[in-house]
Write the structure tokens for this entry.
Amino acid sequence: MSQELILSRDAYLLTVEVRLFWLVALVYAFSALVLLFHILTRRVGIGRAAQGMMWAGMILHLGWIALRIFEGGRAPFQTLYESLSWFACTAVLTYLVVSRKWRDIYLPATFVAALSSGACFYALLSRSPAVPPLSPPLQSYWFEWHVVLAFFSYAVFVVSSSIEVTYLIVKPFLNRGADEVFGLTRSNIREFRGTAFNLVLFGFPLLTFAIFSGAAWANEAWGRYWSWDPKETWSLITWSVFTMYLHAMSIPKWRGNVASALNILGFVCMMMTFLGVNWLAKLLGIPSLHLYAV
Amino acid sequence: MAGSNRFLSLLYRKLSSLRTSVYVLGVLCIFYVIGTIFPQGGDINEYEKAGGRFLEAVRLFNLLDVFNTPWFLVPAFVLFLNVSVCTYDRFLRIRARRGAAPAAYSPDCTVHLALTRAEAEEEVSRILTRKMRFKVLRTGTDWTVMEKGLSYRWLTWLYHAGIAISFVGFFISGLFVREGIITLRPGEEVEIVSTMPENRGWLVPSDHSPPGFKLVLDEFITEYTESPRLDYPKDKRSRVAIALGWKDLSYRLDEDSFFPKDWFSRLRVVRDGSTLYEKKIEVNDPLRFEGYTFYQLAYEQRLKLRVGERLVEAEAGKKVDIPSIGTLRFGPLRTGTLFRLDGTTDKITPFVTVKRLSGGKTEELGRLVLNGHIRVGKSKLSLVDFEESSVLSYRYDPGVPILWVAGSIVFAVMTLRCFGRWYELAYRVEERDGTTSLLISIRSKGLGADPARVIRRLSHHLPGVRS
């Protein structure tokens, strides 16, 4: 095939891919809006419809990922454009899998759908969709494992914090005597919150492996397993905060609001690791070894 | 004496407490955040020149090297003590637990059976041990206690021990590490002496002798792929226009659409003139020899130029002032192999792009090919030769093997602890008013555990279960 043909084929595929990504972002955004409507009306059917939309968006999103893999011939998480998409997809997928345990509880979905659509729009409006070749430092067997597991842990922490926020919103109403708030009752709220803990328990080894594999990879590529690079340091902060959360859950007095606050703080630190640190490094002019991911 | 014993006992209690872990981790997090706000390893004068804030505090607390200050190292050491003491304390407690008398159990469920008490006891024990593979922990008292799965207590203990060992690895790194940078020119034998200030561990003397071998660069190879440029609009409205189908995307290949695919150094380790080891290294595939590891870090390219009759040397990628021409900026020298989009490969005729900088303006002068020339004003600029050097970083770090082992233990055992399953099942058979009842208490740990399923299975296998 001639170079011109290759270029026009790649441009066509990229155009289709970008439009598909817009569609995914709009479906997530629309489901977030419908979920807001569910909050206002408290009608279960609306929540159910919104969750159906999230399923549809996620299936389209998986199609987008398959297309991107075909275009790049590699896993789609090299650039920030790709990682934002991967982050949104894994968050929605994790939420949809976890939510199968419950019936008619849709409040956490609002948070997940809004965050995912925000990530997609940020990628579409602020980043370039170009598919660059893999730079030499990224050509390592650690690349896929490190990123896939890190992002799965992020997805799990997003869903965990969405449950924790829901718990904090609903608990005062139930304490004041309400029988049922957004599908949660006094009999099921403990188990519901237990899911947030189980999710952190699930994500914590993944984050541990992401940090360990990152250090092993850095040792292979740069000759230093730890450089106190801002991204590394923030991942250590995230790990420390979730360690604090897991320990707090073993201390009876801290199992309540202290643990909830730590879980939400862990989510904030995770977002700092993923996005905030790039902004911080740019703002303060701190060189980062992870700037290729910007 | 009693006072010091009381103090030691208090210290032990505090250091083996979970709350201490949470507090110390919190304090360390504050230092981590500080370390990402102030540029670590930076020079205070440069920081001041760049308009850095809080100068007094930065100077006083050495915030540009916060991870080497006592403010950070003391809480880090306390965390190490905390993890080590907790590990020791939990070891004693787990051992003390084994064989201890059973505590009181409150039943989670009761199953009524159409069996005699003796029959029920025999059946339950048989099903749990043979069909469901529980191990008997304690028997002979009111309650029979059984266990299934890897003990979560030992798993938790083991990964905490792994974390404590990791600290030992960090500590050994801090004491004995040696790292620096060497530049190799083709064919030259080079001693392992850093061209920049060497980063040394606390116990490494500043005048330590280099290792008794030398390195030789036999060949330096670069490979490129063609990377087309995407015409993608910067403004958000145009991006929306693409989404709406009003505009399509397009790619173009520029004159210098070269993307570095890989670079390699063919290295030889020599001692007293004889070759001991050879390897072609690249990023992510270093050379290891006698405890040292050599990493492909970067490369330098020196250009030999002719301006009129004069020879001038310049470094690719940098600015150079040439009398009669002005200030020129050379791009990276492209040489080696080019992998084209259509799958073919080409040998690149070495070239460099040239720009002239004058009065804040940049003028593109074009491609300067090896043995070719371009005209700059009235002068003729030719590229007559070039030289590529390989820049390697080296590291000697005896802490790394310990960290590999400890890190692998932490990850593997933590995974088993979190994803695995462990059950402790206690049961008692009662007979009252002619009815036999099985009282079950079950505890579980790990995401794979499902106590309700265990009870369902037990009820399913038991004969004579009454609804």
Q: What stands out?
A: The CA atoms of residues 81 and 124 of chain A lie 7 Å apart. Chain A has eight helices and two strands. Chain A touches chain B through 65 residues (CB under 8 Å).
